[in-house]
C-alpha cells in the first residue's frame, strides 16, 4: 500500500511521519519554502525527546500515472479547491480530504471526480520549533481521526483506510454523516479560537474570567442552535454543552486553556491560522443564521472575527 500526503504543514507532516514509521511507503507533496526546507533538512520530527527524520519520498510535482492507494489532502480550507483541481488528472482512486470545512462534498467531487472523496478530519495538533515538528495525536476520547463515506460503494475503501490507520497507530472513527460532524466540530472550535483573538494576551486567555464566561455561553448557544435545526450532535458528548451549568463550563474552560492540551491543540493552530478561522467563523454563523429568529443573536454576539 502506498500513500501520498498532499501538503507538508503540521498535520500532513505528522501523518507522513506516522505512516513512514509504520513501514508504509509514504510520499509527501510540498511547494515553496517548505519544499526547499524538506530537501535541505528532511522531514524532522521530535519523538520521546529525540529528533528523527521520516523516511519519505519528496515530490515537487505529481505525475498523472503516479498512483497511490490513498492521497491525504492536508491543506487549509481556502486551498482545497485548487488542490482538488490539480489532483483531478491523477489516477489515484481515493482522496481523503482532511480539511476543516462546511463546503458541499458534491461540489468537491465535481472538481476531482465522482466517488473519489472520503471526507475526513485529523485528530492531531502541534507546530514547528526551529523547523522540527512538535506535534501529537489528540487522545482517542477527545477526538480520534474521523471520516465517513459518501457512497455505499466506498465501504471497501473505508475498511482499507481503517486498517491503514490501525497499522500506523492512529485512533480513528467512522461516522455516518461527515457534514453533520463538521458542523458540530466548528460549533465547538470557532468559539474556542475566538477567545484567543479577543484576549488581552492570547497565551493567557484562560486567566480572563469574563472571556471564559462569554465562551461558555457561545458554546451553549451554538449547540442548541444546531439542535433546533434538527442536527444530532456528533459526537453525542457535545450534549454536555447544552445542559452543563454555565459557571461549571466556564471553570472547565479556564482549566483547558491553561493546560498543555490547550497550548498544543488549541492555541498553536488558532494563532497560526487566523485567516482560516475567520473564514470558518463566517461560514458557521452564516449557516446558523438560517435557523431563524432563535439564532439571530448569534450573529450579533459573535461578530468579533468580522473586523
General description of the model:
With 307 residues, this protein is an alpha/beta fold. The protein folds into two domains: 172 residues, 3-Layer(aba) Sandwich (Rossmann fold), CATH 3.40.50; 123 residues. The protein is built from twelve helices and twelve strands. The strands form three sheets. Strands 5-2-1-6-7-8-11-12 form an eight-stranded mixed sheet, with helices on both faces. Strands 3-4 form a two-stranded antiparallel ribbon. The protein has a two-stranded antiparallel ribbon with strand order 9-10. α7 packs across α9. The chain is globular. The chain starts with a strand and ends in a 6-residue tail after the last helix.
Q: What's the arrangement of secondary structure elements?
A:
Layout: E1 3-6, H1 10-21, E2 26-29, H2 32-41, E3 44-47, E4 50-53, E5 57-59, E6 70-73, H3 80-87, E7 95-98, H4 105-112, E8 117-121, E9 124-129, E10 132-137, E11 145-147, H5 155-167, E12 172-174, H6 178-198, H7 209-228, H8 240-243, H9 246-258, H10 260-272, H11 274-289, H12 296-301
Parallel strand pairs: 1-2, 1-6, 2-5, 6-7, 7-8, 11-12
Antiparallel strand pairs: 3-4, 8-11, 9-10
Instruction: Give me the secondary-structure category.
Output: alpha/beta
Unreliable residue stretches = 293-307
Largest sheet: 8 strands, mixed
Tell me the CATH architecture of the largest domain.
3-Layer(aba) Sandwich
CA-CA gap between termini: 47 Å
- How many E strands? 12
Task: Give the domain tally.
Answer: 2
The percent range for strand residues is 15-25%
* Average pLDDT figure: 92
Strand neighbour order, sheet with most strands: 5-2-1-6-7-8-11-12
Tell me the name of the CATH homologous superfamily of the largest domain.
NAD(P)-binding Rossmann-like Domain
In CATH's first tier, which class of the largest domain applies? Answer: Alpha Beta
Helical coverage, percent range: 40-55%
Identify the overall geometry.
globular
Q: What is the CATH T-level topology of the largest domain?
A: Rossmann fold
Our count of helices gives: 12
Helix-strand pattern: EHEHEEEEHEHEEEEHEHHHHHHH
Radius of gyration: 19 Å
Amino acid at each position: 500500500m502506498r500513500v501520498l500526503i498532499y501538503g507538508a504543514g503540521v498535520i500532513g507532516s505528522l501523518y507522513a511521519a506516522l505512516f513512514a514509521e509504520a513501514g508504509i511507503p509514504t510520499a509527501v507533496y510540498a511547494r515553496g519554502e517548505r519544499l526547499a526546507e524538506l530537501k535541505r533538512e528532511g522531514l524532522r520530527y521530535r519523538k520521546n525527546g529525540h529528533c528523527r527524520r521520516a523516511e519519505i519520498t519528496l515530490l515537487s510535482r505529481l505525475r498523472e500515472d503516479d498512483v497511490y492507494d490513498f492521497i491525504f489532502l492536508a491543506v487549509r480550507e481556502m486551498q482545497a479547491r485548487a488542490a482538488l483541481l490539480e489532483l483531478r488528472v491523477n489516477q489515484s482512486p481515493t482522496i481523503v480530504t482532511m480539511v476543516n470545512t462546511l463546503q458541499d462534498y458534491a461540489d468537491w467531487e465535481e472538481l476531482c471526480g465522482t466517488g473519489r472523496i472520503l471526507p475526513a478530519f485529523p485528530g492531531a495538533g502541534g507546530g514547528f520549533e526551529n523547523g522540527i515538528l512538535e506535534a501529537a495525536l489528540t487522545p482517542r476520547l477527545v477526538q480520534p481521526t474521523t471520516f465517513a463515506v459518501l457512497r455505499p460503494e466506498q465501504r471497501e475503501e473505508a475498511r482499507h483506510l481503517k486498517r491503514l490507520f490501525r497499522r500506523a497507530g492512529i485512533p480513528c472513527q467512522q461516522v455516518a454523516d461527515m457534514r453533520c460532524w463538521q458542523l458540530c466540530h466548528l460549533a465547538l472550535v470557532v468559539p474556542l479560537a475566538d477567545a484567543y483573538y479577543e484576549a488581552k494576551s492570547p497565551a493567557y486567555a484562560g486567566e480572563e474570567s469574563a472571556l471564559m464566561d462569554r465562551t461558555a455561553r457561545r458554546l451553549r448557544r451554538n449547540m442548541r442552535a444546531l439542535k433546533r435545526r434538527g442536527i444530532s450532535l456528533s459526537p453525542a458528548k457535545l450534549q454536555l454543552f447544552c445542559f452543563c451549568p454555565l459557571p461549571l463550563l466556564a471553570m472547565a474552560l479556564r482549566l483547558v486553556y491553561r493546560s498543555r492540551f490547550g497550548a498544543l491543540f488549541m492555541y498553536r493552530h488558532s494563532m497560526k491560522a487566523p485567516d482560516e478561522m475567520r473564514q470558518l467563523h463566517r461560514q458557521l454563523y452564516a449557516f446558523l443564521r438560517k435557523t431563524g429568529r432563535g439564532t439571530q443573536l448569534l450573529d450579533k454576539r459573535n461578530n468579533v472575527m468580522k473586523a
